[in-house]
Amino acid sequence: MKIITVIGARPQFIKAAPVSRKIRETVEEKIIHTGQHYDTNMSDIFFEELNIPKPDYRLTVSSPNHGAMTGDMLKEIEQILLDEKPDYVLVYGDTNSTLAGALAASKLHIPLIHIEAGLRSFNKKMPEEINRVLTDHVSELLICPTDTAVNNLEKESVTRNVYNLGDVMYDAVLYNQEIANEKSTILADLQLTKKDYYLITIHRAENTDDLSRMESILEAFKQIEGTKVWPIHPRTKQRLMNYGVDFSSIPGLRVVDPVGYLDMLALETSAKKIITDSGGVQKEAYFAHVPCITVRDETEWVETLVEDANQLTGVDTDKIVAAVKKDVAPSYKPLFGDGDMAGKLKDLIESHSLKN
Ligand code: UD1
Ligand code: UDP
């Protein structure tokens, strides 16, 4: 059996690591890297430290516009699929790379496996929402991380071949946390004291591309006392430079380049609290039992909101500051499966291919 995996953005490399490791026990897998993320610390670093097999195909996307970017990828992926004739195409999440892989596969009638199916923000202004809805509706196997995701699909009458196998990011954390504890020197490098700093990540277009939302978030960072470490996404860095924002006016803020996954796990585990608009980081905060503040108006990961483990504040400065100050004591009940999503996926694909 041959599977072509299409990945292109940072969180997809992290999700692909456990799945590739597992499915390659019995399946021939080839990887297409769409080139959506291309900086070393947004791409190659993950392949190296997570031992992800080198991509068999590496595309380049040049346009920042969604249509052209997706179209460029679609054209090249289609040709590869015509040449390779895989039994399945595998995609992750909700990026433009996901949609390009999904469209290419579905137009050639190659069964599509969508990992992280069924996630919804119900905000169609998000590019990710469009990508995930469309991908789900052309998928053959829909691999959900939670029951909420299964229910979301049911409401859209998508019920065939829908499975909750748990969250692949939990597999990744369980596999890598010990390694991160041993190998990462990021706390010493940045001279950070455990549980004495806040960790920040911001990259959502709805925040970065709206100056007033960014100003409101930055004002909160000003008002939150203490050390704040912010590995800044290239998109955010560019936008803030264009807006002429001067970080040095924010006391205690340490803006650093994006870090590798092992350093990120180390930073997350030792943070006092995490302030983010990332999907993956919300869950990793939950796995690490670190209180999270999500500066978005909605979240796909509604389970994490239980007992204020994750507080959804939007970008209102006062709400962000109040959420950071609030004492919370969540019980962190397991919500995202048992950390063997990849093993279950491998079995599922094998039994599906035998039946079809
Ligand atoms: C993309 C995904 C988003 C995901 C995020 C993960 C879409 C629509 N969005 O957002 O769902 O949460 O990845 O991080 O697919 N850039 C660089 N170097 C890089 C990558 C990006 O400089 O290695 C800059 C470029 O100017 C680029 C901009 O960041 O135009 C945005 O990158 P893009 O991949 O379009 O979207 P993200 O914001 O990264
Ligand atoms: N991440 C990382 N280095 C960073 C920031 C994030 O390795 O500097 C990891 C993080 O631990 C998580 C994933 O990237 O596993 C989340 O990706 P991102 O926030 O870019 O996208 P999203 O999950 O929102 O789609």
Tags for this entry?
356 residues; binds uridine-5'-diphosphate; Rossmann fold; 15 helices; 6-stranded parallel β-sheet; globular; 13 strands; alpha/beta; 45% helix; binds uridine-diphosphate-N-acetylglucosamine; 2 domains; 7-stranded parallel β-sheet
Give a structural overview.
The chain has 356 residues and is α/β, with parallel strands linked by helices. The longest helix is centred in the N-terminal third of the chain and has 19 residues, at 66-84. The chain is globular, with a radius of gyration of 20 Å. α1 crosses α7 (168-183), α4 (96-107) runs parallel beside α5 (127-137) and α7 crosses α12 (261-270). It has two domains: 2-167 and 337-355, Glycogen Phosphorylase B (Rossmann fold, 3-Layer(aba) Sandwich), CATH 3.40.50; 174-325, Rossmann fold. The protein is built from 15 helices and 13 strands. Helices cover 45% and strands 15% of the residues. The relative contact order is 0.13. The structure holds uridine-diphosphate-N-acetylglucosamine (UD1) and uridine-5'-diphosphate. The site of uridine-diphosphate-N-acetylglucosamine has 19 residues, from α1, α5 and α11. Uridine-diphosphate-N-acetylglucosamine binds next to α1, α5 and α11.
